[in-house]
């Protein structure tokens, strides 16, 4: 019996080890590849100890077109940071309203929100572009920021968090103490649903940071590009000029950093949200 249990644990550990290696291998390859010059990259000597050229790659990345890479980096931080923060606030407010208020057609309207979850973001790019043309926001920061504020899945998730984290009795006590509806949401409801807010923020931050198709449709000015679109252009140029390959790989490595920082910094709140249901 103990032998079967040992075999079962060993099998599970082997599967988990394979999954971990499979998950981490692209990141390991990226870290190693960022230290190589173009010759070693094209020659496939990514994991060798030869051709260590990280300092030169960073120098080229900084110097190319007066450091346009870091302008793209700032644009991505603006799009992802402001967009995810605004989206999390809008989603939590909408989920709170769907959960705590009664109004005509609430469930039908929520069903429409759920229908929005089923629509792929690429299918919405053309309608969003036509709306941006009508409002004169094409090729501006607003063309990418405004669509990022809406996330149907975030609204759905926020309603679930609101139902699980905000007791109706607490809101009733706040109203008895004289708090208005806006004050009750901002001072009581929002603070109690912080794990849901952080969860929506992280999901949306990752989605906007990796977003490619919407900026491709909306933007033509290179100074407004996010990292995803800028690195794509460099990769297209690398077919004719292999010297772009080290910059693309090194730039991709630096592009992963904000995502890692965001998840490591906010994981305490995120884990609290994911495991809360197990202790209720």
Automatic annotation (TrEMBL):
Keywords: Cell membrane, Membrane, Transmembrane, Transmembrane helix, Transport
Localization in the cell: Cell membrane
Chief location of this protein within or outside the cell: membrane
Superkingdom of origin organism: Bacteria
Annotated TM spans: 12-32, 77-98, 110-132, 138-157, 192-212, 244-266
Family designation: Belongs to the binding-protein-dependent transport system permease family.
UniProt-listed PANTHER family: ABC TRANSPORTER PERMEASE PROTEIN MG189-RELATED, ABC TRANSPORTER PERMEASE PROTEIN MG189-RELATED-RELATED
Stated name of the protein: Carbohydrate ABC transporter permease
Species in which this protein is naturally found: Streptomyces parvus
């Amino acid at each position: 019996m103990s032998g079967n249990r040992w075999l079962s644990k060993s099998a599970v550990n082997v599967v988990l080890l394979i999954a971990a290696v499979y998950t981490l291998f692209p990141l390991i390859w990226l870290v190693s590849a960022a230290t190589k010059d173009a010759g070693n990259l094209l020659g496939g000597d990514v994991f060798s100890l030869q051709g260590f050229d990280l300092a030169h790659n960073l120098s080229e990345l900084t110097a190319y077109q007066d450091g346009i890479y870091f302008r793209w980096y700032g644009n991505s931080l603006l799009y992802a940071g402001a967009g995810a923060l605004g989206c999390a606030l809008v989603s939590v407010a909408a989920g709170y309203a769907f959960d705590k208020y009664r109004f005509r057609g609430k469930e039908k309207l929520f069903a429409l929100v759920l229908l929005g979850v089923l629509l792929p973001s690429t299918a919405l790019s053309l309608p969003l572009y036509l709306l941006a043309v009508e409002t004169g926001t094409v090729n501006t920061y607003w063309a990418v920021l405004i669509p990022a504020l809406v996330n149907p899945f975030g609204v759905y998730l926020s309603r679930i968090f609101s139902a699980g984290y905000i007791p109706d009795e607490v809101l009733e006590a706040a109203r008895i103490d004289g708090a208005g509806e806006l004050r009750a949401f901002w001072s009581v409801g929002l603070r109690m649903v912080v794990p849901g807010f952080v969860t929506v923020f992280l999901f949306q931050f990752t989605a906007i940071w990796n977003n490619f198709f919407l900026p491709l449709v909306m933007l033509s000015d290179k100074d407004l590009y996010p990292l995803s679109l800028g690195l794509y252009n460099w990769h297209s140029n690398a077919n004719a000029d292999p010297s772009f390959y080290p910059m693309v790989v090194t730039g991709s490595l630096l592009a992963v950093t904000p995502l890692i920082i965001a998840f490591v910094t906010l994981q305490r709140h995120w884990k609290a949200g994911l495991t809360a249901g197990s202790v209720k």
